[in-house]
């Protein structure tokens, strides 16, 4: 327990002296010294210079040895796969993206080959090989059904619905792999690095090409019996066609049926056209139109009310391209429209995470799993 506490401190707070580790863990100086000697002997920590500018002998600084393990994180969308490789300390060593055209459609096991191509490209930038990976997490639309092993709620991802998908990916990468819902991973990123820090009960609503939610209760993601908790893109609402048969194709002008057809990025652009802004081509341009921004806020508020009435979270975080394009102006309008729709009144925030929150959440998840294994000194 003391070893793990010290390793976690070195990860979260960077290089520390023996004295600092003792003070932060409550261990005596001799015990802290023995602990560090033990961790250094097994290669988990290393010295990284000295503290200078103080009276007396310079104190050695210790850090987690970043090379004891590497992990991969991937974010999947309809256009391609983004991969990142990080060391056990959390430093990203390489990142790459491959498009869906990187592997021909008629190639056997195409999905596994695309994943391998993305990981290999990131590993190459990091100067590493597959044999150095200690785990991987893939964020993808939909969710693996624990009963069947199939990816559900993502009909727009051809090739990702094999019953043996997880096993195929683990075999091609040569490392254990987890497949997780992309919005759930975005919520992990918000919980650790973003707007939901210090909140145990919150909902992340993702409005982008697709629409979904992640529900965190008592600090734990709610997944549902088939992995479908939070699939609010299918949710029937007034003014939206029903999403029968799981049709959420973003290629349709209205983005399919359900809540997605009201607030998905393609629907927002189409709404701008109906408001007379025929020149609009992006969601950013659409939400600069006052009347469009106001109507989208009303639609978001109606959908949020349905979720909040059931879950009663402390916080709702809006993320995805629609939320980012609308910014604080959209958030304020949603809050105004939300008044009176439900009795619970959670705080409402816009995500301000930089980069790809799905990739960040996948890295967080992969690192947590690898550290549980590598840092086990019992």
From TrEMBL:
Pfam family, one: ROK
Domain of life according to the entry: Bacteria
GO molecular function: DNA-binding transcription factor activity
InterPro entries: ArsR-like_HTH (IPR011991), ATPase_NBD (IPR043129), HTH_MarR-typ (IPR000835), ROK (IPR000600), WH-like_DNA-bd_sf (IPR036388), WH_DNA-bd_sf (IPR036390)
CDD domains: ASKHA_ATPase_ROK, HTH_ARSR
SUPFAM superfamilies: Actin-like ATPase domain, Winged helix' DNA-binding domain
Family from the record: Belongs to the ROK (NagC/XylR) family.
Protein name (database record): ROK family transcriptional regulator
Gene3D superfamilies linked: 3.30.420.40, Winged helix-like DNA-binding domain superfamily/Winged helix DNA-binding domain (1.10.10.10)
